[in-house]
Amino acid sequence: MSDTLALDSLEIKNFRAFKYLRIERLARVNLIVGKNNVGKTSLLEAVRFFADRGAPQDLLGILETREEAMPSRATIYNSDREDPSIRAEILQAVEAAISTLFYGRKSSAETRFDIGSLTTPENQITVRIVRQPRLSRGRQLQVSEQSLTNRNLDQVEDEPAIKINFGKGEEIETGYFALDRLVNRLSPRLYSSKSPSFFIPAIGLSNLDLERLWSEISLRPAKEQETTTALKIVDSRVERIDFFKPRDSRESIPRTLLKNNSEPIPLKSLGEGMNRILGLAMALVNAKDTVLIVDEIDTGLHYSILAKVWKLIFETARRLNVQVFATTHSKDCIEAFEQAIRENNFDDGQVIKLHAKENEPGEVEAIVIDKDILAVAMQEDLEVRD
User: Fold this and answer.
1) Are 193 and 216 in contact (CB under 8 A)?
2) Could you report the per-residue pLDDT of 333-372, keeping only the tens digit for each?
3) CB of 289 within 8 A of CB of 257?
4) pTM given for the model
5) Which domains does the chain have, with CATH numbers?
């Protein structure tokens, strides 16, 4: 097992809720807490964008998750984009949606946001909204599934685009992505099997996302066993799982075979917690050597099983070299996190408390609470969420 973490520290400038945020130290398992609207989800979004090396589909995923007013791909595809007035309307709407990614919702030529490590500035990501001049056949950089590659594409006069820089100095990659083409060309799914990181939103994963994860696990006995073991935390009767497509349904759903039963049943019939733990377990075992990001990790899970869930996360993350970032509002979840650390002598977890600085809008302080301080806080019944 490698001890290398995807991120050992983090600095964010002008992204979403943050005018500035600095986290000096990150652990293998990081639980993020803080008051409402302080920026917990924005922090997860920044980590995801960094882990995926500035993939533009992540930006679209953020906008979709937050229900920002982004025109749909169907709207763009079905519109007469050769009509100047329609084209201008589409581009204005897309640019307005993209501007929400910047602190203060600004999108002027001077506006940018930066995400990077404090110790390796050469890995910094910078994003701007720029204007592209008209060229008969302009040379652009376009994203492939694996990395940035050169590609010749027609450019349109004064076309708004996202400019993404990765790195600093001479070793820098630059990508330009026309906004309307970006929406039409790239899928803003919450989960993509091609993304380096794995993201589970607060609402959970769709059946399609779950099936895609399962396709990387099915017929791999070790991964199947780990997934089943996780489900047993919620219901010890679980023997096996698979996916099937009901009649007249467009998508497959997970089902399980319970001990002493001859017929499988839909997994969801055992409660919402089963689907939540299934998504969490499958993402975790597939996230080897990368990052797992979970918003509101305790959603749908009973407080009595949370310590077992954290134990599973710590052990699997350590074995597969996964770095985990999760948020919670729940005191029960924090107590279970500390219990798992204490009972199993884990030394690679911490709580990160986000605290908005008074009289300094957008300035957020990240307070790192290690296992020793957390243990004292739990013993003394001290509040660590605000």
Assistant:
1) yes
2) 999 999 999 999 999 999 999 999 988 888 999 999 999 9
3) no
4) 0.88
5) 10-54+190-379 (3.40.50.300), 62-185 (no CATH)
